[in-house]
Write a structure and sequence with these properties.
Layout (H helix, E strand, L loop, with lengths): L2 H23 L9 H13 L4 H8 L3 H13 L3 E5 L7 E5 L1 H21 L5 H17 L7
Antiparallel strand pairs: 1-2
Helix pairs in contact: 3-4
Length: 146
């Protein structure tokens, strides 16, 4: 397979990934959280301590919109901001205990949906999927910010 064909396959994969992600998350009880706020919480959960700029860049949201949504999440006590120890001008954003609880519940719902998707997969299939994901992470997604 040449690199152009691989790229076309990758584009199709990412489009399908977005569709599957939508399907997996559609039944998550968001407790009056918007889809955008959920994506922000999910990013914080997966990435741990992040800045507003990192959230803005990753989710392709303007920094003012990101700040507004973070303020709403902070008012709901789902996130907290602290000053970065190395650079006092930066604020680091983390989930609060309530935010972690909400995301744990959301991920449990998503995991249940995922389990249904792969219920027909053999142990060999599961291992192949895991290996494929590891290769994608190492060879494609490791350079995500560069």
């Amino acid at each position: 397979m040449n690199k152009h064909d691989l790229f076309q396959q990758f584009v199709a994969f990412t489009a399908t990934l977005h569709q599957v992600t939508q399907t997996l998350t559609q039944n998550v009880k968001l407790d009056h959280i918007t889809a955008l706020q959920y994506k922000i919480l999910e990013y914080i959960q997966v990435s741990q301590a992040v800045t507003a700029t990192e959230i803005s860049d990753c989710l392709h949201i303007s920094l003012p919109n990101t700040s507004r949504e973070l303020r709403k999440l902070q008012e709901r006590k789902l996130i907290e901001k602290t000053n970065d120890k190395l650079d006092r001008r930066k604020q680091v954003i983390r989930l609060t205990i309530d935010g972690e609880k909400m995301m744990t519940e959301a991920f449990a719902c998503i995991e249940e949906q995922f389990s249904q998707l792969i219920q027909g997969a053999s142990q060999k299939d599961v291992e192949a999927i895991s290996e494929a994901l590891a290769v994608l992470e190492q060879k494609v997604f490791q350079n995500k910010g560069q």
